[in-house]
């Protein structure tokens, strides 16, 4: 038995949800470029869950179901009020999502219909939790959804209390489309491993959120913005990045386990970053990002991933830095739940082996002789 570090190149399941072949990402066979230009996030949710694009009636029904499911139990809201004021936003989300299960009478029911209902609830409630957490820690009252047709619009309203403008809604919606699913990434794998024991969907999503939080995965978008803020000015980019590379530090938002010639989503986020930063007077972040991109690509041959330009996109939308990864979670919930449903449909316990590298032939030594 020989282990492959990080399971690189190991095919661990079959799946008909998304695929990455020769650098092309598709959801259910539709190219991400096509979806980014044309689809709403709700159409993508439907596509991931049910395997086809919705017709108008199906889309309207999903939008209405999401709106009807967006409120969270009072008990969960009260718990969020008790979180320490410096709670990490992903830790808050992980905890609140776990708590949702306590107040859902069908949390442990395993029929497909019940799991689809819970997928809708989770997709609708996660934005509400994030917005409520952000408002509560700022000393403001949490807000209920306004019932806009778009989840992006409802989230922006619940976060700010203001009617969101079309540019912000369109940008967030596209970011949600781009982040929705990505084959067997770490958090999706964690979700599948969890539910393959036939535990409940809330446990699967709680595992996934805890996994997305790390800086090598979803947490990288916040780390990118922290780096841009630390660099501060365009003139500081070259010495700062050179020093990082000399010190063998990882430049956040670059590199990918699967894409070696570039992430197909990055160009969409780059374009959005250019437009949004310019129109909001934050062009500096884009100019710095472009320089970092050119430098890291030329010096290391590493290309930006989905997290790199999303940092300046969310900053232009006036979203606080520590909500970037929770927003990624809003989007990836659609993929996680699709994978969980697929896992339940064709389940087998996921239990690989480990190559043992520890000592052998040891004998027990009584404690007084150690
Ligand atoms: C949504 C997402 O999860 S996308 C990924 C988000 N994460 C990041 O942006 C964090 C920065 N990137 C990374 O840490 C990595 O590229 C990962 C985690 C994405 C992929 O990791 P792996 O496939 O395991 O690649 P690994 O870390 O082994 O890197 C291979 C080589 O490239 C280097 N490398 C990879 N990424 C970077 C980076 N961002 N900056 C500098 N060097 C890097 C590694 O140091 C390593 O060099 P070595 O062979 O000299 O030791
Ligand atoms: O696929 C991965 O390894 C990381 C990920 O989630 C993504 O790129 O969206």
From TrEMBL:
Identification of the protein by name: Citrate synthase
GO biological process: carbohydrate metabolic process; tricarboxylic acid cycle
Presence of the UniProt keyword Transferase in the record: yes
One GO CC term on file: cytosol
Pathway the protein takes part in: Carbohydrate metabolism; tricarboxylic acid cycle; isocitrate from oxaloacetate: step 1/2
Catalyzed reaction equations: oxaloacetate + acetyl-CoA + H2O = citrate + CoA + H(+)
Keywords per UniProt: Acyltransferase, Transferase, Tricarboxylic acid cycle
GO MF assignments: citrate synthase activity
NCBIfam families for this protein: cit_synth_II, PRK14034.1
Lineage of the species this protein comes from: Bacteria, Bacillati, Bacillota, Bacilli, Bacillales
SUPFAM superfamilies for the chain: Citrate synthase
Gene name of this polypeptide: citZ
Active site: 256, 307
Family membership noted in the UniProt record: Belongs to the citrate synthase family.
């Amino acid at each position: 038995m020989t282990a492959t570090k990080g399971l690189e190149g190991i095919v661990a399941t079959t799946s008909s949800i998304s695929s990455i072949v020769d650098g092309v990402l598709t959801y259910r066979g539709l190219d991400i470029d096509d979806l980014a230009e044309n689809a709403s996030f709700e159409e993508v949710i439907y596509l991931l869950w049910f395997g086809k694009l919705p017709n108008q009636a199906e889309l309207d029904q999903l939008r209405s179901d999401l709106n009807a499911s967006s409120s969270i139990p009072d008990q969960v809201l009260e718990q969020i009020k008790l979180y320490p004021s410096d709670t990490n936003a992903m830790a808050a989300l992980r905890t609140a999502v776990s708590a949702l299960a306590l107040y859902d009478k069908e949390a442990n029911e395993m029929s497909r219909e019940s799991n689809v209902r819970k997928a809708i609830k989770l997709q609708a409630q996660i934005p509400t939790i994030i917005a409520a957490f952000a408002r509560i820690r700022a000393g403001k009252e949490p807000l209920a959804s306004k019932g806009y047709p778009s989840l992006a619009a409802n989230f922006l309203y619940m976060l700010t209390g203001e009617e969101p403008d079309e540019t912000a809604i369109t940008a967030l919606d596209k970011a949600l489309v781009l982040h929705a699913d990505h084959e067997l990434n770490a958090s999706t794998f964690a979700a599948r491993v969890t539910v393959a024991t036939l535990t409940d969907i809330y446990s699967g999503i709680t595992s996934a959120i805890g996994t997305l939080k790390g800086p090598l995965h979803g947490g990288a978008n916040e780390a990118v913005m922290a780096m841009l803020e630390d660099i501060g000015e365009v003139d500081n980019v070259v010495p700062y990045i050179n020093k990082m590379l000399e010190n063998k530090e990882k430049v956040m938002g670059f590199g990918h386990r699967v894409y070696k010639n570039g992430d197909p989503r990055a160009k969409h986020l780059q374009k959005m970053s250019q437009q949004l930063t310019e129109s909001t007077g934050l062009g500096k972040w884009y100019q710095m990002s472009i320089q970092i991109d050119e430098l890291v690509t030329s010096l290391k041959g590493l290309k930006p991933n989905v997290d790199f330009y999303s940092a300046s996109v969310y900053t232009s939308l006036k979203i606080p830095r520590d909500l970037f990864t929770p927003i990624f979670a809003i989007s990836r919930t659609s993929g996680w739940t699709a994978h969980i449903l697929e896992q339940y449909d064709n389940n087998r316990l996921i239990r690989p082996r480990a190559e043992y590298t520890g000592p052998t032939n040891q004998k027990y030594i009584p404690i007084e002789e150690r």
